[in-house]
């Protein structure tokens, strides 16, 4: 929808040039799978062809709604958007895990580790998988396996009569409506092998942020969430009038999910090519490996978004910091820059910046 109050909002900066692939897709434009107990929708390379490293699923469960027992060939990283849910899992050594997840919490299940999700109340969450070709509809589900295993084999495996399987589903259940589970303590199963050695849950929003003028950043990777071996992330807050500084990531592509507010991102890919995209809550953005970019808050409320990477660590390179730690004479001669710019450079990295006189409103003239 065109913003009539800001008619230039959809006009890219005059510095845009060249051709880049599409770096934006919205979950609102995807197909929804609706079941009793919840719904899901996904963005993969089918919807966003450039996004080869990660894929995302937006899912909602009712109170008591269950994402059935299942596992994936890919790792699963998730951020709880609203509401509360209960997750369960068992690892390859028979150690189990059960935890309640609230808004701002994340979880991570390694590839091949079986798990489940159940709504304690109406909830919605983002699931991210470490393969852009992933589709949640190709999940390995317990109901689907039972439905495609002969009853005599099931009987032999579990040591019960074939009649015990007369009521099993004839196809994959995926999501179903169940009863709201009781207190966590009432559902705990004491495994003789103990609990998993590394927790599958991390309280990201409760993590102490790295604050800078104009916002904050919370980084989560294998350093502070050791189980998360293949997905690293940052929760970024940008206040009105501020921006995520000019930077790039030296370890992998960036997959973004916009949580609240609206923003504008320009991506520079070299050889004179740069392109600008506008994002709102519910949109997915993508930044190819090592390409320079920045994100402006173009709205009147705080912009929150997630940066995610197929990596065990979060890494970024600050343009400002790079210049500050390079001999001044070299930077000055390279850019034909004056002392005002050179003297303003900071050796400390500020992921989000906001200075007096800076305006988020696009300057096209």
Automatic annotation (TrEMBL):
Domain Cupin type-1 residues, every copy: 25-166, 202-343
Enzyme class per UniProt: lyase
A GO molecular-function descriptor: oxalate decarboxylase activity
Pfam families in alphabetical order: Cupin_1 (PF00190)
EC number: 4.1.1.2
SUPFAM superfamilies, per database record: RmlC-like cupins
InterPro entries per the UniProt record, alphabetical: Bicupin_oxalate_deCO2ase/Oxase (IPR017774), Cupin_1 (IPR006045), GPI/OXD (IPR051610), RmlC-like_jellyroll (IPR014710), RmlC_Cupin_sf (IPR011051)
Keywords: Lyase, Metal-binding
Name recorded for this polypeptide: Oxalate decarboxylase OxdD
Species lineage: Bacteria, Bacillati, Bacillota, Bacilli, Bacillales
Gene, per the UniProt record: oxdD
């Amino acid at each position: 929808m065109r913003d009539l109050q800001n008619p230039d909002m959809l006009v890219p900066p005059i510095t845009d040039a060249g051709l880049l692939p599409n770096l934006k897709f919205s979950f609102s434009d995807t197909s929804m799978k609706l079941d009793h107990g919840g719904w899901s929708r996904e963005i993969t390379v089918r919807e966003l062809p450039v996004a080869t490293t990660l894929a995302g699923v937006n899912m909602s469960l009712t109170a008591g709604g269950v994402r059935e027992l299942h596992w994936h060939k890919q790792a699963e990283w998730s951020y709880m958007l609203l509401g509360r849910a209960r997750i369960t899992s068992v690892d390859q050594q028979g150690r189990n895990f059960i935890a309640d997840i609230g808004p701002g919490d994340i979880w991570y299940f390694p590839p091949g580790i079986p798990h489940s999700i159940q709504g304690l109340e109406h909830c919605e969450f983002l699931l991210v998988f470490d393969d852009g070709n992933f589709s949640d509809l190709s999940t390995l589900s317990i109901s689907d396996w039972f439905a495609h295993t002969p009853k005599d084999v099931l009987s032999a495996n579990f040591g019960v009569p074939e009649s015990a399987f007369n009521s099993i589903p004839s196809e994959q259940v995926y999501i179903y409506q169940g009863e709201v589970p009781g207190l966590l303590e009432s559902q705990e199963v004491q495994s003789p092998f103990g609990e998993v050695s590394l927790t599958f849950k991390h309280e990201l929003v409760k993590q102490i942020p790295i604050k800078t003028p104009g916002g904050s950043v919370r980084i989560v990777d294998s350093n502070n969430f050791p189980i998360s071996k293949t997905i690293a992330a940052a929760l970024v807050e940008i206040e009105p009038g501020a921006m995520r500084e000019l930077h790039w990531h030296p370890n992998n592509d960036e997959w973004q999910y916009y949580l609240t507010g609206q923003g504008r991102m320009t991506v520079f890919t070299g050889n004179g090519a740069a392109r600008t995209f506008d994002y709102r809550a519910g949109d997915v953005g993508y930044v190819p490996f090592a390409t320079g970019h920045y994100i402006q808050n173009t709205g009147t409320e705080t912009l929150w978004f997630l940066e995610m990477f197929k990596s065990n660590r979060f890494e970024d390179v600050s343009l400002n910091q790079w210049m500050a730690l390079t001999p001044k004479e070299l930077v000055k001669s390279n850019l034909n820059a004056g002392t005002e710019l050179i003297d303003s450079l900071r050796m400390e990295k500020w992921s989000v910046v906001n200075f007096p006189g800076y305006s988020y409103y696009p300057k096209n003239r």
